[in-house]
Amino acid sequence: MADQMQWTNALSTRPSLEAAINDVVEQAVASLTVPAHLGLVFISSAFMSEYPRMLPLLAEKLSVPILIGCSAGGVIGRNQTGETEEIEAEPALSLTLAHLPGVEIQPFHVVAEELPDSDSSPTAWIDLIGVPPSPVPQFILLSSPFAGGTNDLLQGLDFAYPGSVVVGGQASSGFMNGRVGLFCNDTLYREGTVGIALSGNIVLDTIVAQGCRPIGEPLQVTKAERNIILELDEKVPLMVLRSLINNLSEEDRTLAQHSLFVGLAMDEFRLNLHSGDFLIRNILGVDPNAGAIAIGDRIRAGQRLQFHLRDAEASSQDLEILLQEYQNENIGEPSPVGALMFTCLGRGTGLYGKPNFDSQLFSRYIQDIPMGGFFCGGEIGPVSGRTFFHGYTSVFAICRSVREQGTGNREQGTGNREQGTGNREQ
């Protein structure tokens, strides 16, 4: 029998760091029948003062060639009964271990000052990361909240590694101005981005769910400057928006006062646009005199957009639709062995009014696979084959091996359902 991919996760809510590490290592190691090649660890900000102790304590109990992780306002993992839990604002530690035969794993840490400039060739990015573009690598990134150049890094990876999947999130503290930790092998970093490139017999399928629903009809930007919409369908944008809101139900009009976004169509040639076809961006403000609308991204004449609303019901329906589509589209593919979940601090109990909502919904469709993850200050995931930094979203990375025979496998996961999400501006 060929050496097979294995994936496990363990979660501890013990308030002592030593006890939590003992718990997760004992559980995770016991459930693997082979040595782990990779570890991912997410630690609650309740342990903030103990971040420097975590890696030495972990090294006493666990031997794994490559380990990355970060701190978080909440962590996600599998409890001892086998259920996935989202532990928010309480002490918790989540450890994922993976046995990945036929996979090259390259860890890295980069800071903004090291990034190639916008005129650089792909070679400059390849030299920085230290990974060849073929076979196509899959990336997992964990960044600090004030990591300058995060968007530049995402664009650079897309440029140098076409066809790659890039997922991850921004380390969070759960506290205003709280310190974060990024972990890479035996080193604690306070800034920059840590990551791994996975090359070979591995696919990361993605589900990027942002919980918005479109309102009104698609509109065309007929005049724009930088991030300011000056005309929509040759009309004053603010007048178009007011007319749209006046035609909404009373409930949606109320929602529009605090949960209104704009969705940018990502496929210029798609005639019938659906919720998953948009990259959602914040509305930053309006000019009541000129009637212009400023958004959290660059915009150009000719682009299409549609206004969106976000609430718990829309988030639930959105994720369920994407999970159904993923399930239907992956019939015949190798079975998933594990998953990672990068979800926004603005989701969870604060959005749904109860814990574990997104992870339980995921588990109803993609069953019996271990999942780890954390609550992010911003999420990283693809939309229409390009990688973006998001907010208010749940990004799932589903790990499986490459199909061994035939050529029908999806190209490194880039064909999966992906949905744009609200941007948290840098």
Automatic annotation (TrEMBL):
Domain of life: Bacteria
One cellular component term from this protein's GO annotations in UniProt: plasma membrane
Lipid bilayer topology: Multi-pass membrane protein
InterPro entries, per database record: FIST_C (IPR019494), FIST_domain_N (IPR013702), UCP018953 (IPR016741)
Pfam families per UniProt: FIST, FIST_C
Keywords: Cell membrane, Membrane, Transmembrane, Transmembrane helix
Domain FIST C-domain: 237-383
Descriptive protein name: FIST C-domain domain-containing protein
Species of provenance: Cuspidothrix issatschenkoi CHARLIE-1
Lineage summary: Bacteria, Bacillati, Cyanobacteriota, Cyanophyceae, Nostocales
